[in-house]
Amino acid sequence: MEQILANGVYLGSQYAMIALGLTLIFALMNVLNFAHGQMYVIGGFVTYTFYGHWGVPFVLALVMSCVTLAILGALIERYLFAPVIKGSSREESTMLLAAGIAFFLDAVILLVFGEKQRGVPKIVDGVFNWDFRLIMPYDRILICVLAILSIIAFIALMQYTKTGRALRALAQDRTAAQLMGVNVDRYSMIGFALGAMLAGLVGGLLVTITGVNLGMGGATSIKAFMMVMIGGAGVISGAIWGGIILGFMEAIGLALLYQYGDITYLVIFVSLMIFLAVRPQGLMGKPWG
Amino acid sequence: MIFIGVPFAIGVTGRWDFYFTLTSVALLAIASAGVWLTFYIGRINIGQGAFALIGAYVSAILVVKVGWSFWISLPAAGLFAAVVAILIGLPILRLRGVYFAMITLVLTQVVTLTALALPITNGARGISNIPLPSGISVFGIPILPDFAAMESTKLAFYYTACIIMLLTYAALYRLVNSRLGHLCRSMQQNEELASSIGVNISYIRIVIFAISSFFGGLGGAMFGSIAQSVYPSSFQVADSVNFMLNCFLGGLGYVFGPMLGTLVLYFGWDLLFEFGKYQMLIYSTILIIIIRFLPNGLLSIRFSKGGDK
Amino acid sequence: MSPLLQVKNVTKKYGGLTANNAISFDVAENEILSVIGPNGAGKSTLFKMIASFTPTTSGEVIYRGERISNLKPHIVARKGVVRTFQETTIFKSMTVRESVVVAQHLRAKASLAGYFWGSKTAKEDVAAFGKYADELLEFLGMWDIRNEQASNLPQGSLRALGIAIGLATDPKVLLLDEPFAGMNHDETMNMVDLVRSVRDERDVTVMLVEHDMPAVMNISDRIVVLNFGEKIAEGTPSEIQNNEKVIEAYLGSVDDEIGM
């Protein structure tokens, strides 16, 4: 029981971070970043390159992941998304663009990092063992703590800083924000960069545990979408809840149904579909329609 | 052009593999036509892969386990997909925008996982060794030859695929220009207003979604026949996304948009195979450039507002 | 003569908020009845319930002896009770004429399949629709703009288009939601004449929600006044103008606004 709880918290914190980035981007630009999973993978690979390959200290490698993704995100927003959003008559164009970027990043990952699965040496050795009721390797605990700290930092940023306030204003009402003097172009870019950075950070954190490879991008994107939808698209608390719920569902599902493998995910997906059909705005979303 | 020009060109250049490519284009265009149709009522459909997979399995099961002729299993597959669409559509079609899109995205995964889990679909091993389509004869007069007896099945499949594709698009064209098309357009532009003038929006949404999935099932079933096998991985989320991309690229306002889009995207993808690992890079770069500069699709270059009157 | 439409004790509650409380009144055939009241009085909500775009919490709306509340909106439209919208709600990418043609689909005789295959009935329908659309547009003075795309039209024409779309369904009761909003004096006068001729020449019963008092007093046969979700008065324009409760409700907007 405690094991399931612990696993749930661990998975949940990681997923929540991914969901946060995605929901931020959605709140700002009304676009589901199809490439979010790829950004996560890039984060993982950058950390691998710096920490695993070149031996740079882990924290520094993480920072590099964040920086890389932030720059990447900013560029993508400024030069690709912004003009398309302005120039298109249909909202689906941005979705199409996001899909194109996802493919593009997949290609870049293949060329720059290769197709092999990569891992890094453990950052902390040893396993926490509480009477065999709860077994958790120390590095997982560390990563979980780091994730939770990052989430708290993110929320603090959004609540208490000028940047955060500007972003929240922008997310709520673009026109109103403009009237209040918020430079919407600049903050859209910052917001996207921030969202991308979160994805990259999680990638960097998780590469120490699950490793990273090219194929994870798409699957991660889908999980991220689901979380955001469960929690309510564009709502920060929703993203966190979505992440936690998915984390727990996976933990519980894997514990209970482990002999049936794929059924876990089938059950999760079908429940999700039913949930969304009944309550499309997710848990925290504004009543829709 | 399609029927004589292409075979001639292929014969001359000796690029026999193009038959498979173009046949694929035709079949994918059929599925993409379905997605286009859902766009026509204002919904973003990222789930056509699910229906293609359903169609492929139904046809395969009917041919292999029940012993039906392929030609009968084809419409049956389409109909089964349509029925599934109706069942799923009932609760979800009232949702719009990203919400609908996300559920359809999950749908593809669900079908894949179901295929893995059900005994009738053989799980991960899939259904293989599907026999080639048999002939059809009425009163002893052969109308369609038996595929197994032919020396060049490639050509036969190509023609079949093209014929079905043309029929699909003819139907689409007719639909768009009929009263149903008017109703769809009114719903696409303003569902509430359409409802206030008496349009039964729930009914039409389901009808259109069913037709759209019918096309998906059709394309999938034929694919299974050509590949002579069906696996849970035959159609995945990426395929659903691709169908959607085909529509976008060609232009959502034009009936033949998805056909052009499929041709460009798939054929382009295949042509780029020469570039090995740079294939995806170049492909996606071109895609991004097109979206960036032609956000309303390729056909918007030629027409200001084309064939949807 | 029994009333054409009856609103019987219609109540709408949203959670703890009561938008309409036990509203009752009758509408006679061929009359022009306006529903007025200060902002937030619940007028639009009432209209939405009459056209069944919103379910009632309790109470019913009876049309020709049949209950029409809480049915699906398109069914109510088919029965002849049609609503236009408060915002400039139109089919953006269609031309004026196209919108009016589409709106006639309710009158189609051929089946959907008939249209698909181009049956004779279908062809006749299509011809009839075009003709009716032209006639209607001319009646409404919109002939010149018939091929304009709806999104290019100015405010006044958009309102007229909204009415055209509603009329094209050949309704028996037309619910106009703020038809004079955002118009200057001349435009309003034109619209008043238009609405009146719609009632006179096309045998339609008209209900309006409006804020423009001079126009309402000018055009209405009878008026129902709502305030804070309750009906506070009902009567002819002169009765309403002299009604104390009404004056009180509009306190602060006396004189110019309601023309007293």
Q: Which structural class fits the helix and strand makeup of chain C?
A: alpha/beta
Mean pLDDT of chain A: 82
Number of strands of chain A: 2
Task: Report the sheet with the most strands of chain C, covering strand number, pairing sense and barrel closure.
Answer: 6 strands, mixed
Determine Rg of chain A (CA atoms, Å).
Answer: 19 Å
| Spatial arrangement of strands, main beta sheet of chain C | 6-7-8-3-9-10
Strand content of chain A: under 5%
SS-derived structural category of chain A: mainly alpha
Q: pLDDT under 50 segments of chain A (min length 5)?
A: none
> Major sheet of chain A: order of its strands?
1-2
Most extensive interface:
A-B, 47 and 43 residues
Instruction: Give the DSSP E fraction of chain C (strand runs of 2 or more residues).
Output: 15-25%
Number of strands of chain C: 10
Shape of chain A: globular
Q: What is the radius of gyration of chain C computed over CA atoms, rounded to a whole number of angstroms? A: 19 Å
Q: Which runs of chain C of at least 5 residues are low in confidence (pLDDT < 50)?
A: none
What is the helix/strand order of chain A? HHHHEEHHHHHHH
Task: Describe it.
The complex is a heterotrimer of chains A (289), B (309) and C (260). Chain A has 289 residues and is mainly alpha-helical. Chain A contains eleven helices and two strands. In chain A, strands 1-2 form a two-stranded antiparallel sheet. Chain A is globular, with a radius of gyration of 19 Å. The mean pLDDT of chain A is 82. Chain B is mostly helical. Helices cover 67% and strands 4% of the residues of chain B. In chain B, the strands form two sheets. Chain B has a two-stranded antiparallel sheet. In chain B, strands 2-3 form a two-stranded antiparallel ribbon. In chain B, strand 2 (136-138) and strand 3 form a beta hairpin. The longest helix of chain B is centred in the C-terminal third of the chain and has 27 residues, at 201-227. The model of chain B is unreliable at 304-309 (pLDDT under 50). By secondary structure, chain C is of the alpha/beta class. The longest helix of chain C has 20 residues, at 120-139. In chain C, helix 3 (96-103) packs across helix 5 and helix 3 packs parallel to helix 6. Chain C is globular and about 60 Å long. Chain C is built from ten helices and ten strands. The interface between B and C is medium-sized, with 21 and 36 residues.
